[in-house]
Amino acid sequence: MEEAKDQLRASEISYSGDVVGGIDLQGGFIFYPVGSAVVTESTTTMESLRFGDAKVSCLALSKDGKIGAVGKTTAMGLEAELCIWDVAAKKLTQRCLLHKGQVRAVSFSKCGALLASIGGADDNSLIIWEVGTGKPLCGAPVSASAVAFFNTDSERRNFTTLDISKDDRFLYAGSTSGDVAEEIRVWNVDSRRELLRIRLPGVDCLCLAITKDGSSIIAGCSDGFLRVWRIGASSQTMIMSLKEHKGAINRIAVGRLHPQDCITASSDGSCILWDLTTLKRKCTMSANAFFKDAAWSSDESQLVTAGTDRKLTHWDCYTGESIRELEASASEPMLSAAVNPGGTILASGAADRIVKLWRYDEGTCFAAGDRHTGEVRRCVFSPDGRTLVTADSHGALMFWDVPMLSEDKVSDSCPAA
């Protein structure tokens, strides 16, 4: 028999295979769990890291391979550990305790700053952790066996519009960036679960509204189309797609007293009053400006628009004629407008970061606030009219106490609110 020649032998590892994400390759090293330990192995070395005595149930490494995370299994009803460690230093950095019984799966965000974890059958919860501090940021009840960050292109979603149905059952979100750039997502507010997605390929949803009965979603899009969907328990049907605007639709306002009426404000310099029952245009208001916002008067006989011409313009909804123009800013575009429930006060926000309150009938400014650091893009009154909420381009929300109007004559100047 010929003498046996030297045989080439491949490295071999063994593990049970029941650990979620139980093997990972980063930077020439293989990571895998054995019992309560995590083994780090290269072609020349093998090391074992142990984080307590509980068995490892899941394993994940950050995208850059610098941070690792392991979940543990413990007895029913007891806290299950989620351990985060520095791979290079081989040092435990955070020990997170919120799950019960088992941490079933873990996943890092693209930048490695966030970690998602899912509990086992006795826990049924999703938790998002801040990796640097080990603090839980948010959570939700789920029943799942795996988790991953779907938004791989951007760590921040740029939601441009939100609305809640009148019965507080559904939350609707529209976005122009991230993984929902061309989607409308419907959520159950109580359970915080996503119920439905409406996809808009190649189109950004810039604004949306909900009909009074909560049965339909109305979306204004970057292509100038007004789209309406009838919403079911788990489905949607588009019932209208109208193209009258030549520019992006920036705001939709559905009538409260006349829910069949809908106003759209567009960058093409027009506002259109729609009849949602006949699916036809009732009236058009036009100006030499981009309309950024539109608000109904309390009796819905008039409309107020905010435009890039620095004006707040009052319109007659029956004739489409301009009634009054207010020079609302000295130098910057007007971006938002709202009328209080009593119909006596008009609120405005502009790119100059100033919030103003106006007497609706007289057109005089009686209060102003300059607390914002970014463009004031949204104004909303509370149902009782006592509070005004404003939002700016930096993501800040401001809550303003609305002063009561007196019978005294108000100066044309704007004292600070």
TrEMBL record:
Keywords recorded for this protein, A-Z: WD repeat
Alphabetical list of PANTHER family matching this protein: TRANSCRIPTION INITIATION FACTOR TFIID (PTHR19879), TRANSCRIPTION INITIATION FACTOR TFIID SUBUNIT 5 (PTHR19879:SF9)
Gene3D superfamilies with a match to the protein in the record: YVTN repeat-like/Quinoprotein amine dehydrogenase
Name of the protein described by the UniProt record: WD40 repeat-like protein
PROSITE patterns per record: WD_REPEATS_2, WD_REPEATS_REGION
Pfam family, one: WD40
WD repeats: 295-325, 327-368, 369-402
InterPro entries, sorted: WD40/YVTN_repeat-like_dom_sf, WD40_repeat_dom_sf, WD40_rpt
